[in-house]
Amino acid sequence: MELHGKDTTLQHLNNSVMVAVDIQTTGPYAGFHDLVEIAIIPLDAQLRMSKLTIPFTTLIKPKRKENIDPGERNEKGYAKMNQIVKAQLDGMEAYQAVDALRAWFLKFGFKKPWTRLFPLGFEWTWQRDFLIDWLGRLTFDEIFDWRYRDLIPTCLHSLDRCDFNIEKKKYWQISMRYICRYLNIERTSPYDCMNEANCVAACYREMMKERM
Q: Which residues are 120's β-sheet partners?
């Protein structure tokens, strides 16, 4: 595999693939609220959408409709009520969506020895709990690597480094809205999983250009 080929994966992942991930849920608590939409975008070595593998995205019917949080929506990943209604009407049953993800994972050759998806997200540890609730622990571990990238610790590392080196700080607020604005990344819809996953990848790509 060429180090800088047209659409290679990151070399140090050893045939695993980094993917940008975004989700929408019916509320803040995994195991009580449900995942209703997900987007997984495979990335190439330049942290752009891979041309070799189509993204995975689907709507999922909520299992615990009685627990849908009708409160104010925000940027954390809570779906708007019209999105939840759409998922109820048009989404796949949770078990069908699991089968669809596994079929996608196998179709594009990810299932090689020790091959996993390396997730890149915004607040991945929160997203991860919803994926485990949906997929089950065994299937989650089969598909996703335990190592991950996240814009939040990346920002915090930058702040630590700036303080340590007595430099001007870059990320005063840890939110997608602020990070996108600071890095001049267009963010058209925080409630669209494909758009938001693309924004996460674009932000991380710009962060990789920053000098240490």
A: 20, 149
Q: Which fold has domain 11-208?
A: Nucleotidyltransferase; domain 5 (3.30.420)
Half-sphere exposure of 123 (CA within 13 A, CB side): 14
pLDDT in tens, 101-160: 999 998 877 666 678 899 999 999 999 999 999 999 999 999 999 999 999 999 999 999
Residues with Cβ within 8 Å of residue 164, at least 6 apart in sequence: none
Give domain limits for the chain. 11-208
- 166 secondary structure, DSSP code: T
Residue with tokens 């009708």: 70
Q: Label residues 101-137 b or e (16+ Cβ within 10 Å = b).
A: beebbeeeebeeeebbbbbbbbbbebbbebbbbbbee
Q: Which of 198, 212, 197, 196 is nearest to 154 (CA)?
A: 212
Alpha-carbon gap, residue 41 to 19, rounded angstroms: 5
